[in-house]
Amino acid sequence: MRVYYPAMHKLLLFLCVVFLSFTVSAQNTQQTITIKGTITDSVTHQPLSYATTVLQDAATQLPVKSMLTKDDGSFELKVPAGKTYQLALAYVGYKNKTIRVAGTGLIIDMGKLILSPSTKQLAGVSITAQRPLMKQEVDRLSYDVQADPESKTITALDMIRKVPLLSVDGNDNIKLRGSGDYKILINGKESALMAKNPSDILKAMPASNIVKIEVITTPPAKYDAEGLAGIINIITTKNADQGYNGSVNAGYNNVYGYRANLNVTIKQGKIGYNAYAGTGNRPDNTTGFENKTSFINPAPSSLLQEGTRYIGNKNTYTGNELSYEIDSLNLFTATFNLYSGSTTQGGSQFTTQRDSNNVITQAYNLLNNGTGNFNGSDLGVNYQLSFKKNKDELLTVSYRYSNSSNKQFSNITADQVITDYRQYNNSGSKEYTTQLDYIEPLKVVTIEAGGKMILRDNYSNFRNDTLNTAGNYVTNTGQENNFTYHQNVYSLYNSYQLKFAKLTFKGGLRLEHTTINADFSSVGSSVDQGYNNLVPSFSAQRNLTTTSSLTFGFTQRIQRPGIGQLNPFIDLSNPKYITVGNPDLRPAVNNNFELSYGNFAKGSINISTHYSFADNTIQNITSVDANDVTKTTYANVGQTQNLGIDVNINYPLTKQLNININAELLQVWLKGTYNGSFYTNSGQQGHLFTFTNYKFDNGIRVGVNVGFDSRYVLLEGRDNWYFNQNYSASKDILNNKLSISVNFSNPFSKFNTLDFFTKTPDFQTYNSNQNPYRSVFIGFNYKFGKLNSAIKKNQRGINNDDAAGGARN
Predict the structure, then answer these.
(1) pLDDT confidence of residue 20
(2) Nearest CA to 186 among 239, 233, 237?
(3) What is the DSSP letter of 603?
(4) Which phi and psi (to 5°) does residue 331 adopt?
(5) E-state strands within 355-499
(6) Distance (Å, rounded) from C-alpha 93 to C-alpha 115?
(7) What is the rounded CA–CA span in Å between residue 708 and residue 699?
(8) Of 22, 153, 626, 796, which residue is the least packed, with the fewest Cβ within 10 Å?
């Protein structure tokens, strides 16, 4: 017989509960240890930010905890005590390392942990070195701006000079293989930021705002067919993770004024936002100029203009991107870009005209004061669908709206001979783009296909008001027009990429149908035309070793006239030297072949040769009328051939001393017929830019940059040459979060002279302009915030690269 004691039973039950609670509590408050350290590069001894650190159970090899290193390369992991651990380190481009954690106590400091650059190929051609600057892919070259130590001290425009195949002349015009016919994209998309004058924006933007610059010389079929020389794609910073980060960059230049830039990234859950904004202000700078024309036929005479000019500008820009990950298969992104700028320009000049006996027949003073305002914006939305069977299979639907306006005003007054007048031009464009892209990557082959529709509406309303005897300004009906230009482009493309162990092939076709309607309301005339283009592209890459490759490419490119070339607005700000567009321009087709070799064993070297030819290309044409007025316009008159070689070398002479050389040499042949006269010209042109920097042990970095850009061959003459020298120094402080820099440009001369000339059987012209040369810049760059994982964004989107861009003045 059993006897129960209820009180004792409850006591035992209570003690069991207390014991279990104490055991669980003890487990929850189990002692932890902290394992920390700093990861650095074995060559540069610089910290590696965002390196992966994984703490593993030494017995099971299973991960216990992981994190990415901070900006200063440090990490700190807390784990339960009582186990034996090992630390696994990984970073792209470096050899993985596993270290056994040794030490006692609650805090184990591993100290400095060193990773060495990998010598294995990652993808395509691996460029091994300490953060390699260049990468050669099957259809493009890319320059890693973030790996360039000078990215903290120079502008984005200065960085362009370092990029293979690119150059910048004395007027800050960008050239791709000596040509101004290319398209600039921002993150793979056309942007209002680059619509007006990309040099102004890139001069105000710090290079630290850019991740890399791609030069696409053999654009695949997915890109619009425009751009004789190719495409420049600027990738801006987008390292968006959970949390936030950003940077502030500001400085002052005694010639180009101040600039300021803010870049910020925020990531919370499925929503990510990246934005950058900047501003720049160039004060008015007054310099001298000279224009001279010697008339040969029908009778010898001459025209000379001497005087001063001034120009200043202000600009503000912003780029924004929003990303929303609906789920693992659906992604929505939206972009918004805005640019606003204003200019002040003008000057004074004295004009003297002489006859064949050197007798003055006309002389007068003229003053010109003008203003300009430009605004541009674009809004885009993208939806991307991935598929469950293969998440790299993508279907993307995109839409973009772009709007820009440009208002110009000039007030011209003269002391005699010429009647005072005012000049107005209000021009702009609206663009609507819809695009569908599909990509399916299979085991060896990747298939891409899609379609696109671009609807463009351009306009230009201009007039000249002349001062009458009553002191009132009256519109001159002979110099007034309302011009509208509608261009629609419909395209389909299909391309294939085959990738093997050592060989990669990429080829495709793009079919484009273009319709054009233009109206000149004031004179009752119109233009109605349409045409089709079937554009092939092919490129191949052979990996010779893990660090070298040989690449071949062929493509056809279309040179469509841009609104600036088509606009019939007559710029009479200098009545003896006028410029006017040509609305009758038609597109030209260019054929381009290239062969390049890249080796990236130590540093990097890329050597490429190319040959291109085209008929009926658009050329600058200068003529003189019966009143001795020199007119510059555009016409489809040129047959061009280019044969060239490009060399880019980036080589570490020592661990602290590095040199970069960017060189190009071109042989150019031009010929064409205009107004019954046959013109031909040929010659060599090119550039040589060198960049040398040295890093001291105390963190101070100094650099010396010297560059030369030659005269370029024109159908009727040659333009200017340019020599540049630059000295810079920078210092990182506050755990590399703050960088202070100073930059001296051309310290030995206040001005330089840029000149160019035109030579025909009937006349010769010579023009020279002084430009500010000597300048000093002082600036800083400060980084803030902490992030952990990248924002997801569409892999396909709209990039309208089919309208001509770039010019050399």
Answers:
(1) 38
(2) 233
(3) S
(4) -135, 135
(5) 360-387, 390-414, 421-441, 445-467, 473-499
(6) 10
(7) 30
(8) 626
- For residues 93, 96, 102 and 104, what is the CA-based torsion angle, rounded to 10 degrees? 50
Q: How far is CA 138 from CA 418, 498, 503, 542, in A?
A: 59, 11, 10, 9
Paired tokens of 178: 């000596």
Whether 485 contacts 520, CB under 8 Å: no
604-655 residue pLDDT tens: 899 999 999 998 888 889 988 888 889 999 999 878 999 999 999 988 898 8
Prediction pTM value: 0.71
Q: Output the CA torsion sign for 195, 200, 204, 205.
A: positive
Token digits for 618? 């658009």
Q: Is the pLDDT of residue 511 over 50?
A: yes
- Tokens at 689, concatenated: 């830019």
Cα gap 98→101, rounded to integer Å: 10
SS3 of 718, please? strand
Is 121 strand, coil or helix? coil
Would you mind telling me the total number of residues written for the chain in this entry? 809
Tell me 192's DSSP state: G
Please, are residues 547 and 534 in contact by the beta-carbon 8 Å criterion? no
Q: Are strands 230-236 and 722-733 parallel, antiparallel or unpaired?
A: unpaired
Between the alpha carbon of residue 143 and those of residues 147, 151, 161, 331, 649, the distances in Å are 9, 12, 11, 29, 12
Distance from C-alpha of 459 to C-alpha of 70, rounded to nearest angstrom = 52
Helix (H) or strand (E) holding 566, with range, is: helix 563-566
